[in-house]
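As a warm-up, study this chain.
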Amino acid sequence: MTDAKLLLERHKPRLVYDSLEAYFAGSAAIWTDFPYTRLRRADGTVLAAAPQLSLAFLGPHAYGDGRPVRAGDVIGETSRDYKQHAAEAHANVRYRNRVHGRARRDDQQRLWLQYWCFYYYNDFQLAGPLLSGGKHEGDWEMVQLRLDAAERPVVAVYTQHKAAESRPWSAVEKAPGSQDTPLVYVARGSHANYFTPGAHWTGVWFDNADGRGPRIDPAVVVLGDNSPAWAVWPGWWGDTKATSSPIDANSPRGPGGHRQWGNPALLAGVAARTAAAAAARPAAPASPPPPVIAVRRDGDRAVVAFDAPDAKGLVVAVRPAGSDEPARTISVPVSGTKGEVEVELGDDRAFELHASAADGNGAASAGAAAVVPER
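Now compare it with the structure written out below.
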């Protein structure tokens, strides 16, 4: 087999974010190396915090100080200021724009490339104040490719929540100028992975993946079969617990806690079951139309006038024009068809601004775009 790192670099996905996305895939160390998280037992006993807490401190059976690992152990955020802390982690070049790659053979000895993506927070950002579900600390998603005997991709499988979707390599959209690079359209807030841009009906909600955000070629952190040890740590990457909401979920286990870690073919089976179940889904309702917006600059703020019939909430996102930064977002409830909201910009640069409306059911619209001129 060709060196795993070479194969993983050759076919690493280009992550195409939604225009309103606030959380980008980064090193798993964004969850251990900063002072905002704690490793603790299920009863709340704190075991470690940074700088003692690090990826190297984690293991399948014992921690770096010799204490035993328990399956109920959790790394959780202390302040819940997810936006600020994720932004601080992303600002550090050592941590931002990473995927964790692994070459693994399945139970039929077919070779797969797995790309595990870690996100600081899972936030559907449908309308913030309207929905209490669909949000959790930590988010592991993945893309995997099956290679043939000549080590060329033949099948791609993308995770989508608890489901997955599979396509032959010939039907996968590639990056311009590179037939080796699959495009992965990342859904707003949920980070589900799609083969095409647009609004995707899951049977319960819409995932919006408009593909109008930054396009990132991440660096690959190479993983082995059961190494580094943090990858098979059995604890929880976040302390969020699901409620009765149909869009809610627990924080996830790490890569080694997923069945496809041991046998990549199992995810292809999930994709087959997902396709079969899709026929029984209820018909997709009409998604709300995007708001009509007009933006003016008032010093270090953007004033957004909107017209959004029947909207109950509005999400507004800004990033410096032309940058590859995650968006900064605010979510506000609204009443009436028309109104204004203000967004802090922070400096004199030009900004791109995107706005999405949500209806009373929490379904979010596609984004409307505008440019805030420099001051």
